[in-house]
Every structure is written in structure tokens, then in C-alpha cells.
Amino acid sequence: MIWVGAIGAGGCLTLAAATGVAAADTDSESADSASSSTEQDSSAASQDSPDGGTTEGSGTAADPATIPASIKRSADDDADEEAQADAALEDAIELEIDDLASAGEESTDASNGTEGVEIESTDADVDSTDAETTDAETTDATEVESSAPSSDTDPATPTAEAAEAASEQAVTQSTGRAAAVPDEAAEADAANQATSETADSASGDAAAAVLQAAAAGPVTGVQTGRATLTIPLDDDEFRTRADWYFPTQADGSIAATGVIWLQHGFLGTKSSYSALAKTLAQQTNSVVVAANLPSFPSLRCGGCWINGTALQQGVAAMFVGGEDSLNMSATAAGLVGTLPTSFVLSGHSAGGGFATAAGGYYAADPSSGGNLRGVVMFDGFSFSGVVPDALQRLDNPYIPVYQIAAPPQPFNSNGATTAELVAARPGQFVGVTLANGSHVDSMLGSNPIIDFFAQLVTRFSPAGNTEAVYTLATGWINDLYQGLGPADGAGIYGAPDQYIVMGDTAAVVLAPPPVVDLDRYLGTWYEVGSVKQFFSIGLVNTTAQYSLNPDGSIRVENSGNYFVNNGPESRIVGAALPVEGSQNKLNVAFFFGNPSTNPPGNYWIVDLDPDYQWAIVTDFTGLSGFLLTRTRTVSDDFYQELLNRASVKGVKGRITPTRQPAADTVTV
């Protein structure tokens, strides 16, 4: 039994190590890394304090990935001056981004100001190590910073007009054309029009971006980088580490179609998803960003964790407006230029629920701009009610939400969030469940040790499942960028409960439980496979006959022969009643007593042919399972389909074939 203890200890160490890396990568002020980093020296700055004194600070390494930590207006400024200051602030930030793009690793003074506005950047080292060396990073502390009071305006501070001119010049130099100054009133009017016309326009812009990216040439590789990312939290901010994946053309340039936010799951780390991130970047021509978020709330910030509303809203806010924080981090990680505006939110496990919630908050913001193309969850789940609430916000205009689910198991809350998604969007394509899938299908391929223990804790992923995840996700995302879907897209879709063969594996399109017409269900059924019970070992020719009793209950008669055709006969008779409020569950009673209508029931019809030619039956535990057909035998391919369907519908027990030697011919 020593090896059992060794495996258990290894699993605990792996989870502890993963959690430690996550804690290390939710960075605060100390950004020193054991891996290579670029230090940027800046001179000390002295500023007047509000009380007339001075506050001195010695800058050591200005982090271009840090957004302004303090924005405060003077109480004496009138409304016009405030608007002018805000415009100057935006231009100053844009100027800083463009300077970083052109200057590369040069030291940048991140402190700029306008009348009544002070911009302070927190000093931190920029880590430029490849994302695959995450394990070498030293532990940094997670930090939530409050905005510091701003100082009085320095006479040398550039005016709003000067900042605007400098910004326009910088944009002209980096893009080869002058940037037009937007009309603020027009922007406000456009932000308030959350209509189908806005959605159509956004889809048209997305399609144009796809064509423009395609004209730049195919993606030949993926460039990786790492930088600090600042997530806004109302008046505070949350800083963490983010891995960036940039799709590159043959000449090394980047002409991405969109951005994918990829969120790890509970107790996960960004480095565990590097294989998935690289695949998404290369096959969808997307810039992928994966950030570490805490798996537990802290005393300093109760909402700063993967299930916290504060971070969900903060991530949504990063995609509103000029996406300054994202652009600064991407620039520090190696991007030259700015990020595309179209984006997709995605995540695994609790990260999938996080992505959906963030999408809901983004859609609810009238100034969002309508750039969210969709949400893709990798066996995502969340607390009860979180996803349905987000889906309501994502309904007008309609934003697709797709799920690549594993069969119900403890690590996806037994499919609770998947069921909520199906119920919230009835009749629509919302994803698939992979046959015999593991909760960690999507994260395999980044680290063999983590892969092994992750599967040991959940279940081992069958051959082909991870590749199926890639095929499904990349096909859907490419369609989302073009405004396409199940009716006209090139990805893999299907009707509810449709069976899809995907090479070595298979999938079933998500669907609600079947609505059973008991009159059509009556008659003779043959068992072609089942989870064998002690009384059914050696039983062949197993048959179930259902008919109506005079009192309205269902007569159940199960029969078969032991070992051979015409062998010793086994027969048992019972009765069944539908569970109250259910359309696919019954209670069956044998021997003594009458069946009740109380839930949960012990006879669940979890999958059913529309023509009532086959059915899959289990119970609320999933430990029993029966494959029933109207014919005594089926083909090998169809038997495999029934097995796959049973796994998708939650049958956990091992199903083995039931012989039917009384069969005259083999039928489909």
C-alpha cells in the first residue's frame, strides 16, 4: 500500500505547487523574477503634497504594464476643465503606449499630468521571460492598491491641447496615419444604442477585421511574453501576472483578428494552459492572454478571487473604452502596436463561469462598444444562478455562449452549470459533451506531471478528447469573429442531442432531458447492455415489458434466461409510477409495497430516441445503467454510440454487453 500513499502525497504536492505558483504570479510591487527580466531605471520624482509639503519617491523600474494608480480632479475645476482634463489623460495614456511600442525596453517616465489630473505609475520590474518558464518565478504577493491623492498641478505639466497633439503625432508615427479625435457627444449617443443594428454593425466590423488579418498572411508561429496586468476595481486596482501569446506571420509581424481572455480554473495556474493558449492563438489568429487569479478571497479584498464579483466586473471593465490596461501589458510583453478590439472570453472549470459572468457585466455596460463576440467555456461551472444571470444580460443583443462539457462528475458540480445553460437557451445550440470526458480534457499538454495528477484526481482523458476540444473551440471562435453560427458557420454544431463522431472520440450536442410519452414508451424492450447487478450476472435474453395496470400504474415485467438460450428462466413483476413534476423519471417497486410519486425516482430515462426505438436508463446516482432497444441486437457501431451516450448522460457504472442468443438476425 506504500504506492497508494505515494500517489496521494504526489497529488497533494502537485496541487500545492500549482496553488503556490498562482500566488506567486498574482504580482504586487515586487516584480523581481528568478527568470530573466528587463529593468527600467527612472529618476526620482518630487511632487507637492496636498498640505504644501513634498513627497519624494525614488523610481527604480517603471512598469509600462501598470495603468494610472491615481486620478483626482481639483475641487475648483469646473465641468469644462474636468472634461478637458479627462481628454488629456486619455491622450497621455495613448502617447505612453505608442512610446513604449517604439522605444521597446527603454526606460519610461510613467508620471504625466494635466490641469487637475495626476497620473502615477507604480514601479515594478517587467518580466519578459517566455510563458513556459513560469515555474521558475519567485513568489510575489497579491496586492490591491488604493488610489493615492494627487498633487497640485505642476506649471510644467503639458496642457490638454499639447497632450492631444503629442498623442496624434505618436499615432501618426506608429501607424502611418493621423488619428481622428472622436466626438464625445456622438460616442455617448452610440453607447446608448444597444440594439440589433449595433450588433449587426459590430459583426460587420468583425468580418472586416477577419478579412484584413487574412490578407496579412497565415499564422506561422506563436510568440510568448509575460508582463504585469492591472485590473481596475472601482477606486482600487488588482495587479497580477499575465502570459501573452501573439500569433505571428512569416515575417514576424502580428496581425491578429481578436483577443481571447483565457481564465484558469479553481486551484489552477495560467501556465497549466499554455498548450491550449498556443493552439487558440495559432488556429484562430488571436492574441491570447492568461492571467493568474486567486482561488480564495483575501482579507484585503473579499471579491478578489476567481468567484468574486469584483474581479469579474474588473475584467469586463478592461475591455471597455481604449483597453488601456490590456494594451500596456501587451506592449510590455512584446506587442508592437495595439490590440484588436474584437474579443472572446473563455475559461476552464470555475474560469468558465468567471468568463461568462464577466461577459454579462460587459454586455450590461452601455458604453461597452459591442466588441464581445462570444464566450467559450471548457467544462465551466459557477455558483448556482451566476451563469443564468449573466445569460440574461447577454441576450440583448444576443451573444453566443458555448460549453465543451465533460459528463456529470463532482468536479463540474455534476453538470449543474451545463444544465443551467441548456435551460436558459432552449432549442439553441449551446455546446457539446465529450463522451467519457475528463474535467481536465482542455488543460492537458502543458506539463506531464500536472497532467498525470490532474487526471488521477478527476479521471483519465480518453484518446482524442483534447484534440476534440481544440477542434471545437477553434472552429467556434473563428466563426464568432465573423458573426457566424450554427446556421452558417464552418465550426462543428448540431441539433439538440445529436451524436457527433470526432475521430477517436465522440460528442453529443447539449440538450434538456427527454420528454417521455409513456403511452409510446410502453411495449417490449430488449437489453443490449447494462451495469451488471448481482442477480443479473450470467443472465441472457434479458427483456422488459411495460403495460398499463387497471389502476393507471405501469406494469413492469423483467425476464431472461441464465447462461444460455432456453436456460433457467428468471422473471420478476413490479409496478411503476411517474415522479411528480418530472417528465422522464419514475419510481419502480418490486415484491412488496407500491411505488410512490416522490422524487428523486429510481428509473431515469436520460436519453431517448425520438421514434422510441432505443432508450438509456439509469438512476439518480448514475451507478446503474441499461441500454434498451426494440430489437434484440444492434450493430457494433450503434452499440458504441449507446455506450458513449450513456457516459454523456451521467452513467458512471461499467456497462457490459448483454447477450441475446434468441435473436434470429442482426439488425440495426
From TrEMBL:
Signal sequence, renumbered to the chain: 1-23
Protein's GO biological process: response to stress
Residue ranges, compositional bias (Acidic residues): 77-99, 117-143
Region described as Disordered: spans on this chain: 19-200
Bilayer-spanning residue ranges: none
Top-level taxon in the UniProt lineage: Bacteria
InterPro entries (UniProt xref): AB_hydrolase_fold, Calycin, Lipocalin_Blc-like_dom, Lipocalin_CS, Lipocln_cytosolic_FA-bd_dom
Alphabetical keyword list: Signal
Protein name (Swiss-Prot/TrEMBL): Lipocalin/cytosolic fatty-acid binding domain-containing protein
Keyword Signal: yes
Protein's organism: Mycolicibacterium poriferae
Biased composition (Low complexity): 19-49, 144-168, 178-200
Pfam family, one: Lipocalin_2
Record domain Lipocalin/cytosolic fatty-acid binding: where: 516-650
